Structures are given as structure tokens and as C-alpha cells.
């Protein structure tokens, strides 16, 4: 739980810096980010999520978009 808690805190800190991060969900190491274009609406950032997943794969990290709008 210590590692998961630390990771969640770090992801939330990224959310403070980057407005595309609308929310951090989950617990332990089962965590996800909800990416949005606008936090006030919150319009899903579907295309941006796909680009981020592709870039992460280029870096050797496998991440998958999930959710109804494929932005989590």
C-alpha cells in the first residue's frame, strides 16, 4: 500500500500542474487518470489520451485507454 499511496500522491501533484488531468481514480497500484479538455465541463480528452498512450508505449510503458470515452 505504501507504493500505491505514494504513486497516487504523485499523480495528484501532476494534476495540480496539468489541467488535462481531471481526476485520479483507484487505490494501491490499480490507478487511473481521467483526462479532460476542460475541467469545468469536463469534456473528455479522447484524442489526447490516445496520443499519450502511444508516447508511453514508445517509452516502453504499456498503458490502455478505458472508460466510455476512452479517456481514462
Tell me the overall shape.
globular
What's the β-strand tally?
A: 3
CATH architecture: Alpha-Beta Complex
Q: Look at the structure and name the CATH superfamily.
A: Aspartate Aminotransferase, domain 1
**Helicity range:** 40-55%
Radius of gyration, Cα only, in angstroms?
12 Å
Provide the β-strand percentage band: 25-35%
**End-to-end span in angstroms?**
22 Å
Question: How is the largest sheet built, in terms of strand order?
Answer: 1-2-3
Number of helices: 2
User: Which H/E pattern describes the elements?
Assistant: HEEEH
What features would you highlight for this structure?
Aspartate Aminotransferase, domain 1; 3 strands; alpha+beta; three-stranded antiparallel sheet; single chain; 72 residues; 25% strand; 2 helices
